[in-house]
User: Fold this.
Amino acid sequence: MDSLYTDSIKRLIEQLGRLPGIGPKSAERLAFYILHTSKDEALALADAIRAVKEQIRPCKDCFNLAEGPLCPICADPRRDHNTICVVEQPKDLVALEKTGLCNWVYHVLGGHICPLDGIGPADLTIDRLIERVRSGQVREVVMATNPTLDGDGTALHIASLLRGLPVRITRLARGLPAGSTIEYANDKVLADAILGRQTIQ
Amino acid sequence: MDSLYTDSIKRLIEQLGRLPGIGPKSAERLAFYILHTSKDEALALADAIRAVKEQIRPCKDCFNLAEGPLCPICADPRRDHNTICVVEQPKDLVALEKTGLCNWVYHVLGGHICPLDGIGPADLTIDRLIERVRSGQVREVVMATNPTLDGDGTALHIASLLRGLPVRITRLARGLPAGSTIEYANDKVLADAILGRQTIQ
Assistant:
C-alpha cells in the first residue's frame, strides 16, 4: 500500500486532505485531477495559493482582507463612511455584502472574546475600532457579531466601551429565520421573535 | 459584489472552483481556509501541487505515475513481473492495489479506444505493451479495462494483437457486485452472472 504512490503524490494527497471538508477519498480524487490536468492549470492553482498568502494583508482601517493599504470597501468613496458594521470575520462581511443591502463600511474584529480559549479584548482589533469612533466622523456602529453567547458578549463589551460617545449603537435584528417553521424553532429563537415583535401596519 | 474580493482572492476562488466536485460555495470556503491558515501550511500545499507537476512522469515500463524512471511497482523485485495487468488509468491501478490481492505488475494504457472521441489504438500505449509481451518474460496478461463498451472493445483489440504469442490472456470476472440485490441488478449484469456462473462445491 505504501508503495502505491510516489513521494510527491503522497505529499499532495496529504496536503489536500488538510483542507476543510476534504476527506482522504476526495484528496485522492483531487490529486488525480491535478496530475491529469495541464501543467499550466495546475501551476495557476499553486500560484494563486502562493499569491494570496504573499499579497493579502489586513486593511489598515478595518482589518478586512486587502491587497493594498486599504480594502476595496474602505477605498470606495461612494460608501457611507459614517456607519461602521462590526463583524467577527471577513467571511461574515462577505455574507452581509451579498445581500446587496449594505452601503456602510466595516470593522473586522478577528474573532470574539472567549475567555475559555484565552482570547481577551486585547487579542481583537477593538482598540482600533474605539479610535475610529473617537475620531468623530462615525454616526452609527452596527453590531453584527454572531448571535451566540461569545458574539453577544463581545458586542456588549464593545457597546460598554462606546458608551458616552456621540454614536448610535445598533445590532442586527433577532427573530425567526425567513423560510423556517415556528413548529421547529427553538425557545431562544421564539423568545427573540416574541420580544422583538415588529409592527406591520 | 465585484469589489467584494481583492484580485488575488478572486483568482484563488476561481482556480479552486475548477477542481472537480468543488462548487463556488466550497471554493469560497477553501479560499477562506487558505487565507486563515499559516503561511507555511498554505505554501506547503502550493509547493505540493507544483512538485507533482514537475516531478511526476510516466514509468518507462508501464506508464504508471513515477518519480524516477520506474514506478514503485515496476521497481519492486518482489513483484511477479511475468504477469501484466492492463488498466486504463493510474487510478484503476490504485483501486486494484487497495484490495491487497495483486502481486503482478501493470500496464497503463492511458485511456480506451473510442473512435467517437477520435482516440485510436495509436493514442494509447498498446504498442509498448505488445513489445513487453514479445520480450518473452510474460506468462499472463490480465485485462482490467472498464467493463464498458469502450473498455471491452479495447481489451478485445489488444487480445487480437496478442494472439499467437505464448501468453495466457484473462480478464477480470463479471457478475453480480458483492453486496447488491438481484432484484435491482440490470439485464447485462444478470446475463454476465448467469453465463459466468461458478461452481461452489
About this structure: Chain A touches chain B through 56 residues (CB under 8 Å). The CA atoms of residues 27 and 146 of chain A lie 31 Å apart. The first strand of chain A starts at residue 57 and ends at 58. Chain A has a mean pLDDT of 90.
